[in-house]
Amino acid sequence: MPLPPSSPLLDDILRALPRRYRVPETLGEVAAPLNGGSSTALAIAVEHARQALAAGATPGAATKQAFIQALARLIHDAVRAEGGDPAFQAIVLRHRAPQVREFAHLSSTADQDRRQIHAAVNGIAHPAKLQRMAPGQARDALAALQAAAALPSWTVLSQAAQRLRATQDKPLDPAVERALARLLDDPALARLQRLDALAPDGQVRQYQSLWDRHGPRSGSQTAAAQGSAAQRRGAAVEAVATEALAALSQRLNEAESGPPPYRVVTSMLVPASIPASAERAKSEWDAVLLRQTCTNAITPVWDVCLLLEAKASIDAATADLPRLQRGLRLLAHADEHAVYPFQTRQGVVHLRGASLRALPADSPDLAGTVLYCCDAPADTAPRLLSAASRMQLLSAPASVQYACQLEDGRKPDPEALESVWRQLLESPQWAPVLQQYPMLCQVRELMVHVDDLRAAV
Question: pTM of this prediction?
């Protein structure tokens, strides 16, 4: 069955929707009213370089110098004690101090190591096992091991395990003896003890302080509270956006002469049966407008008309676009002759593969297929250099080395940053930085305010 033509009413509504988050296609138009600064200057230089490459030309010397000088200023700004960037300062400190590098390396596996050691301790002295044991020295020793695992010192745990092996009146159960030996020989325990030993170091403490200034530590109560608040905020935006999409569905149904063909589903999960990799692709869609292909079918089959993603902030949509496009490419791998079951909050819906294959990922038609719905106010001075691009520029080896020289009291030559310029022009890993302004334009074109969507229907 061929795809039905799109609804003229839906097309008209989408075209008429105000796009209050839109930015000009030419960066100069939006940059001119801004106060400037190193980030803005850097974004302009990057965009000039992209435009030259897109035209088949080599970026000129003036653009190169503008980039290098702006990057040097960005680094100067980031390492300032007052008003600098604590995350970048932590990166620089890690580069300069061997003990900080070791601490950072060990910290990267610390959560996994903790889980591994706690599992080993529970295998020896699980609380349920202790409750079943008769009172006595053996139970007390095992209880001490379990208590030591709850303390913030891994050396104390190691000592408790050693005492358990050495101070029993009678030999330990062979299985417990083997488990204790494995625990004491476990590299994970040695790594955690080394973390304990490094923690009091002055530069390590400074490193941790810098990350604390950047944001709460992963797993902390503050991080959990912020995560919960963000989830509630996102859920609230999603609920309002879904209501607006449901109103749009109702209006489209009212314009039909027969049975109502449109419906909205939420939390639509992509099935694993689509023959493509789902790695780093969007696998759940917030809200989807569907149209039934045959209203008298026993099992209704649907086509996708519009995909809606709710975002609590403008920056969240910008960061999400690559994942969304990968999600569209995943759907486009559907077999056009197949019908796929999708789980949603409203139950299972069956979607035609031909409809999924027709979804655009990169074409201008994306604006007629996807909406980012947000309730944040439009920004009068949009951030031209994304946070991800800024950090990639700062984290380049040449940038970190330049910052280290500044921290050592030297005056490095900005020309030392030329290698970052070459990477920007030549390396595929730098394509997201080079393409950041076109991506910003694209995502802003897809964004609508939830009030505007409600007003349109």
Answer: 0.83
